Amino acid sequence: MSKHFLGDTAVLLGRSLRHITRSMDTVVTTAVMPIAMLLMFVYVFGGAINVGSDSYVNYLLPGILLITVASGIAYTAFRLFMDMKSGIFERFQSMPIARSSVLWAHVLTSLVANVISLVVVVLVALLMGFRSGAGVGAWLAVAGILVLFILALTWIAVIPGLTAKSVDGASAFSYPLIFLPFLSSAFVPTGTMPGPLRAFAEHQPVTSIVNAIRDLFTQQPVGTDIWTALAWCAGILVVAYLFAMNTYRRKIA
Amino acid sequence: MTARQAHAIQVRGLEKSYKEVKVLRGVDFAVARGGIFALLGSNGAGKTTVVRILSTLLKADAGTAGVNGFDVATQAAKVRESISLTGQFAAVDEILSGRENLVLVARLRHLADPGKVADDLLDRFSLTDAGARRVSTYSGGMRRRLDIAMSLIGDPPVVFLDEPTTGLDPQARIEVWQAVRELAARGTTVLLTTQYLDEAEQLADRIAILHQGRIIVDGTLAELKRLLPPAKVEYVEKQPTLEDVFLALVGAGGRGGDAGEHRISTQTSDE
To answer: Is beta strand B189-194 parallel, antiparallel or unpaired with respect to B158-162?
Structure first.
């Protein structure tokens, strides 16, 4: 059954990567919203926000990167939903291929598309004055956290992609995920928030991930934040993966 | 075992319910190798459910089904190697070109020379000129032909066609019929579902009528006709049907040569 898994996944990955290169607009629109936020917060609100460091763009970028991923995975759900709806999913499932390769191709495509969007956002941030003295190791650590974050959110996106009844339903789940960074240390330090909100903000996954990335960029000691961040990402990844696989198995009978 | 070998498809006592609704209530039929078998029924009769069970996309609640000698429940992988499914809606990738669609399926079937397989099929289905174009620019008939071409890659011995001509114009329908006949001529077993009586009449060696979850009759066209009182001889003025007129005027094209049987020639007044 799985003797062709890698080959079949590669063929199907090639197919969905073609979808991306032929509709670069989806990758670009994924990056547009976070870039607009970056511009607005840095140039409109940034002057009035005191984050206790020299440059607000340096402070803001980690949160914007997470928002980029949160909006990017809406397209993962969308692409999967379109395959389910068009019948090509059933065609693949009735063929003698490794069945889970259909899903893995979508997951890997999501990874590639999100990485492209992230690179675009980072380039814009560099133009806006984002600077980091981080070495290769720190950049690799940031990349590792982001890849883990993309995979965790991608497996969440697989669930509505498989079960949604409409296009809107397939991508609506990403709105709360896009909103979550606002209730974290991504835009402002949590210290200024009222008690209960602050308690939530300091204990939700985004804060630890944002803090870990920020510390890596600013060459601060990452402390326990990075372990909390990794634990959140890995935890979400495992739970979402099990849930998605279970949904998938029920779907393909 | 011998009975299994003789039949390409063997279905016994198949039952399936969706929540409270009993869609199949004990379906039995068998399809001989190399024939065209039509499963006829109105919308919602359960035709698609039967096809989905036979193509391992759905599990039956009760009963057994064998395809090419393999059980759909316990030997699903073997069944998938023996079949191809052309679903109700053309399952083609709109963003890829026609040729890329064919190459994709050939590669997933692990064939040696996907490019050549694709080019041969484009030629066979008169799609060579459109091969490099994105499928989103194709007409309904072209899309359906591509869909069927994709199903033939790897020469599966059993092909399921679920309502292959629904939504097609008369010319495209004739093109699809032609493709199905060629398929059967090569020894492929075809199970076809349709709600069009003339389609079953035109194509099938055997016809089964699925009604309210059961097969109510199963036989050759001649056998089905014998179920009714013998034909009376009546004299009826032979009028061309609108379809005859339409096809004669627009020209069914080289592909639909089969329409010639009942094609009229329009008399022009310049003689």
So the answer is: parallel
